[in-house]
Amino acid sequence: MFQALLLDKGESFSATVKPVDESALPPGDVLVRVGYSTLNYKDGLAITNKGPVVRQWPMVAGIDGAGEVIESSHPAWKPGDAFIHNGWGVGETHWGCLAEKARLRGDWLVRLPSAFTARQAMAIGTAGYTAMLCVLAMEDHGAKAGPGEILVTGATGGVGSVAVALLGRLGYTVVAATGKAAEADWLKRLGASSVIDRAELAAPGKPFQKERWAGVVDAVGSHTLANALAQTRYGGVVAACGLAQGMDLPTTVMPFILRGVTLAGIDSVMAPLARRQRAWDRLARDLDPALLETLVEEIPLSGAIDKARALMAGQVRGRVVVRIRD
Predict the structure, then answer these.
(1) What is the mean pLDDT of the chain?
(2) 238: pLDDT strictly greater than 80
(3) Global pTM?
(4) Matching fold, domains 2-112+295-323 and 126-265
(5) How far apart are CA 111 and CA 126, in angstroms?
(6) Domain residue spans in the chain?
(7) Whole-angstrom distance, CA of residue 30 vs CA of residue 100
(8) What pLDDT score was predicted for residue 294?
(9) What is the Cα–Cα distance from 187 to 161, expressed in whole angstroms?
(10) Is the pLDDT score of 326 beyond 80?
(11) Interatomic CA distance for residues 313 and 202, integer angstroms
(12) What values do phi and psi take at 102, rounded to 5?
């Protein structure tokens, strides 16, 4: 038996940390011991049942995990190997990592960089790994550190806060958009040059606006993304990775055909291994571990349900690390 955060939908939805028998684990060629997991926005949606994330019931929550391999029939993994897991439908269609044990596919795992502990890897988690994918997309489309401003929306969230930290350390001029005015000083310590109210971007706007942003990392979607596109400078790139405001995109083709703006969609769930490894290698190089620690709140597995509710209520900043064993 092992402890797991189990989601079920019988007569009514339930989320409970409870003992689960190892025989109930789904198929996979690697059995792992999870040391740390985390809470991402998608985890919050699943644990609070506020979005159609879970597609099979019952489900162990947790799209992220880090720890060590217990057993393996996969040629790339052996007992004792340190791993990171992000995405691949885990916590949605395959039992996840908010549990002491998980059975996964070896093809889904990334080797833990020597620069990180398992706890640090989960302080980064899917949110931070997604932020790095956004930075790489901007670099690949020609964005360079310099006088041009880079907008980061949802800046106090998991993706946004790591994006601010990464871009600031890389020398970009970062403008952080947030609805939490009290967090302005914290965002500046992370690396933001200035902070704006998210309300400046959240309402419907003109399809073509004054040029401002050399690049954008957007985790919000909807009118915020539409306004960011309308304000992006000629040849700029917008990396879109979230839908905290909504999944709609009320915009026009004008930014694309008159200013040559690139809209780069960022998917972290099914990204191929080479792209994942590139992102984690860059995180090991470019993310300051001391700064990372300022983003982190650590909780036990028993506190994950209450913290997921707080996350969905907008009461969490930065990253939440879940310690699986007390």
Answers:
(1) 95
(2) yes
(3) 0.89
(4) no
(5) 15
(6) 2-112+295-323, 126-265
(7) 14
(8) 87
(9) 7
(10) no
(11) 18
(12) -150, 150
- The CA distance from 198 to 116, in Å, is 33
Q: 164: which DSSP letter? A: H
Cβ neighbors of 237 (< 8 A, separation 6 or more) are 137, 138, 141, 142, 143, 215, 216, 261, 262, 264
Fold of 2-112+295-323: Quinone Oxidoreductase; Chain A, domain 1 (3.90.180)
- Please name the fold of domain 126-265: Rossmann fold (3.40.50)
* Amino acid 133: pLDDT: 97
Task: Band the pLDDT of 289: cuts 50, 70, 90.
Answer: confident
Helices H / strands E in the chain, number of each: 10, 16
The 10s digit of each residue's pLDDT in 66-81 is 999 999 999 999 999 9
Which DSSP symbol is given to 79?
Answer: T
Work out whether strand 319-323 and strand 82-86 pair parallel, antiparallel, or are unpaired. unpaired
Sheet-wide strand order for 59-60: 13-20, 2-9, 59-60
CB 96 within 8 A of CB 47: no
> Which amino acid is present at 62?
G
Residue 16 exposed, middle or buried by CB count within 10 Å (0-12, 13-18, 19+): exposed
Res 220 pLDDT > 90: yes
Element spanning 216, H or E:
strand 213-218
Supply the pLDDT for residue 145.
84
Q: Are 73 and 107 in contact (CB under 8 A)?
A: no
